[in-house]
């Protein structure tokens, strides 16, 4: 008998439509630090970049990046419970559960805020675990641990779904399959060029991960 499929999710931009909240937080911080926010055209260009390149272009000294990220996460946590998701996501998650998939979340967000989001959407019973507190580029270890906790046996039956290039890299490092979702931050063409195991263009396509 085959092991049940395990589908692990990034949170921001994958399950939660966090970009509007991120823009609000960025505007607050920009005002406090007398910085200028990118316009719509510049944001489209930024979507083609890896997170490392984004940090380099931000003008924030590398020594200050951890402090700056902590400020962003603290303010985003206040907005997380009320965030919206994406059209079709609820049906996709319900379908994955009906197919026997075990679901988990790997995120740098605080657990309380993520669980409030799940509760508000009535999704909490569908998720077997929430792994939080991951560093910006340290998800691979948490992916491996979550897969073990969910009883994953066959590596080919474990997926990590995310909306950024670093999510593809983390899945590859963890030895699981990567699903790049195109409804989040990074540009779809850039994601596809990175060679994930699957490129998903609508939440309904998440069901294919349980085949």
Could you explain the architecture of this structure?
The protein is of the alpha/beta class. The protein has 2 domains: 6-17 and 84-210, 3-Layer(aba) Sandwich (Rossmann fold); 19-81. 44% of the residues lie in helices and 14% in strands. It is built from 9 helices and 6 strands. Helix 1 (19-33) packs across helix 4 (65-79) and helix 7 (139-149) packs across helix 8 (165-174). The longest helix is centred in the first third of the chain and has 15 residues, at 19-33. It starts with 5 loop residues before the first strand and ends in an 11-residue tail after the last strand.
Secondary-structure map with pairings?
Layout: E1 6-9, H1 19-33, H2 40-46, H3 51-57, H4 65-79, H5 89-98, E2 102-107, H6 111-121, E3 127-132, H7 139-149, E4 158-162, H8 165-174, E5 177-181, H9 188-193, E6 198-200
Parallel strand pairs: 1-2, 1-4, 2-3, 4-5, 5-6
Helix pairs in contact: 1-4, 7-8
């Amino acid at each position: 008998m085959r092991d049940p499929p395990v589908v692990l999710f990034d949170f921001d931009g994958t399950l939660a439509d966090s970009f509007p909240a991120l823009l609000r937080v960025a505007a607050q911080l920009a005002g406090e630090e007398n910085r200028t926010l990118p316009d719509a055209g510049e944001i489209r260009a930024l979507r083609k970049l890896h997170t490392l390149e984004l940090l380099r272009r931000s003008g924030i000294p590398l020594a200050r990046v951890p402090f700056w990220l902590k400020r962003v996460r603290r303010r985003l946590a206040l907005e997380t419970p009320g965030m919206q998701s994406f059209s079709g996501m609820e049906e996709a998650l319900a379908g994955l559960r009906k197919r026997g998939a075990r679901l988990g979340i790997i995120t740098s967000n605080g657990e309380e805020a993520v669980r409030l989001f799940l509760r508000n959407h009535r999704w909490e019973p569908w998720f077997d675990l929430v792994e939080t507190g991951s560093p910006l580029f340290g998800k691979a270890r948490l992916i491996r641990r979550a897969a073990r906790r969910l009883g994953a046996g066959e590596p080919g039956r474990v997926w990590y779904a995310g909306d950024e290039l670093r999510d593809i890299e983390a899945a590859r490092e963890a030895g699981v399959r990567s699903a790049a979702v195109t409804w989040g931050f990074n540009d779809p063409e850039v994601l596809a060029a990175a060679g994930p195991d699957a490129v998903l263009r609508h939440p309904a396509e998440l069901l294919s991960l349980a085949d």
